[in-house]
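Forum: Protein Structure Q&A
Topic: Joint prediction for protein chains with partners

I've read a bunch of threads here and the consensus seems to be that you should model interacting components together rather than docking separate models afterwards. I'd like to see that in practice. Below is the full input, 786 residues plus whatever partners are listed. Could one of the regulars post the assembled result?
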Amino acid sequence: MKMFKSFPGLLFFIAAAAVMLLAGGSAEAKVRVVTSTPDFAAIAREIGGDRVDVESLSKGYQDPHFVDAKPIYITRLNRADILVYNGLDLEIGWLPILVTGARNSDIATLNSPGNVDASRFLTFVLDVPTGPVDRSMGDVHPRGNPHYMLDPRNGLLVAKGITEKLSGIDPENAAYYEENYRNFEKLLETRISEWSKELAPYKGTKVVSYHKNLDYFTRWAGFVDAGYVEPKPGIPPTPSHVAALIKKMEAEDVKLVLASNFYPQKTPRIISEKTGAVFLSIPTSVGGEEGINTYFDLFDAIVGQITSALGSGSGAAGSGSSMRNG
Amino acid sequence: MSVGRIVAVLVISLIACHAWPHTEAFAQGGEDIQKELGELKQMMEKMQKRIDDLEEKNRALEAEVESRESEEEVVVKEETVTVPASPSPGEPQGFLSKVVQSLNPEISVVAMITPTWYSLNDPVVFAHNDPENTGVNMQEVEVGFQSVVDPYFRFDSFFSFSTEGVEMEEAYGTTLFSMPLNSQLRIGRARAKFGRINQIHRHAQNFVTLPIVVAEFLGEHLNPTSVEASFLVPAPWYLELSASGGSPDVETPTFGRSPDANNLGNLLYIFHVANFFDVGESLGVSLGASFATGSNESGPDERSSLYGVDFFAKYRPLKNNPYQEVSLQSEFMWRQAETPEEELEDYGFYVEGMYRFAKRWNTGLRFDFTDTRTPIEEHEDEDHDHEHEEEEDEHGHSHDDILGLMGRAYRISPMLTFRPTEFSSIRLQYDYLNQDYGPNQHAVFLQFQYAIGAHGAHPF
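Posted by a regular:
Agreed with the consensus. Here's the joint model:
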């Protein structure tokens, strides 16, 4: 009996639990989709239309490797029917701990019905190490390069996967999702061939990027990766590496330096000034810049910025000003 | 005693590393599993063959595409390939071993090695894993094994090795299935949800030394073996209530096993409320309150009660300077402890500010304070602490096992950390300690930290 004398906390606890009982259990008909990055959210919106609620945990102008595992995300994941994430260890530093805390068996394990690792929909993954790997190589991803959404053709695969998931979880609206997917597919295929046409004159352009996160894009665009501002993935540039890179760029006549707009801009800017190459700070995710609200907007912006910079042939150009919306 | 523990842990680790999948498999019916393994192997070989084919096809395709430079890009449709998982173009054996390996738990090792200088010959050390004396200290080697158990549970275990032996720091199962009231159970030994720093492993904390108030009231960490239920309240912000009851099977400065142990009322009960608010996208604030009550060892009915509030705020602008952040963290604790002679009351707090000014650099300043209304004499605890006399001697001037404080103490600690990568760090820290019951102390630490194995989570 003595212990209960010292229990002011217990009273509060009981009161709060009662509040929780009353507040809980609100029913909502829409399928709740939570995604780790805004690209998946944009695609889920295309497919789900008004039958789903979609929310992305991270922002498009944020480095997806380093998102703070804010407890508020647990609250969002707790209510999710489907969690769509990038996989290939991109979110390894922040998502697992949130998923465990979410208390939601729909998404809790790899085998849960709403746990959607979007990398499973891919047909190929770049940079899967073939030899031994260790962390002396920097922040290597042993399962391959995770930035696959920058190849728009992967957007198609992911959209198809999301359509199947949505139809499985919400079979009543399966026809609706299927129709949205077909529209999305048609439009995206058209746009892909348009973007390809716009990029075609610049095929073979040598490009230096800040991090290895643009490889899927450069591969699709037909550019040639000539080096990285980071000496190793995740390791900030060192003076000696920058000097060697500048030399290499001059020898190989590299005309373009690209960096996601969330990376530090100072070093790539200096490199472009020293070499006369064009430097572009580009958005690499939906929401990465004001006005980029769909997956189409994203590639309109990237392709537009690159083609207009290369087309004008100017020296060290500014960033972000040449954005185009479709 | 401690050798026995080491052997036990080694045996467990060996089982975990090598035999774990097999023992579990055979327990369920070896033949089925063998058959399945055979099938899996076959499937894998098929897949490998398919991958090789596809790669070849892919190469041919790419060559073709390159040859038609000015023509339109070919849209690769999903019907070309349907490989369920990300294909790995490694050697067949490497691919197979990778898949099998993934059934093992994730293993991680984190070491903290700290060259240290103390101004006193008989240094004042508050926490068990603080650097012990002038020289090079092996503060801690933490070994972790973590994995999902099955669709319903995950299990996390951490063993803390130091020069004095091994401690089972954590070993608990967590429920993964949805339960009524948004609840979740943690069963086993875990760092209790009391305050903030008690839930953060030592290597993820911001300073070399543990705050005095935490060391004096919770010990190195408060990790009773218990059953903990936590509830996620459906509120617009993050609100979690947790309650746990368990055995105080680890001696702490505040709680201990009652001589009248077989009594539910004498177990250790811990309650915690955690709140988190997003104030805009750049600022996050968390506020918590904790309460713990349990028996202390001073008599059959003597109890200790511990109250705590914690505050944490982090400002990290997402748009410009993505790697800069400022954070402020503080905890206040107040303790009441009954002893047969008197009721002891003391309190303390710490405040630490951190500034990360570049991707790999951060600096911080911490202020520590503890005081008591009922000062005790040194070594007054000896009569109820017979079990720990040996350790007390090894620790020298240890405060580890004292119920109640001797007086007022404060400490100021500036710190600078360089993190070459997420997996290593070098931390320089200076401590100035002032206590009204003993001499002042200066200390300088240079802590090296290494982490290998599984990629840990970045704590918020």
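Residues 382 and 389 of chain B are 8 Å apart (CA to CA).
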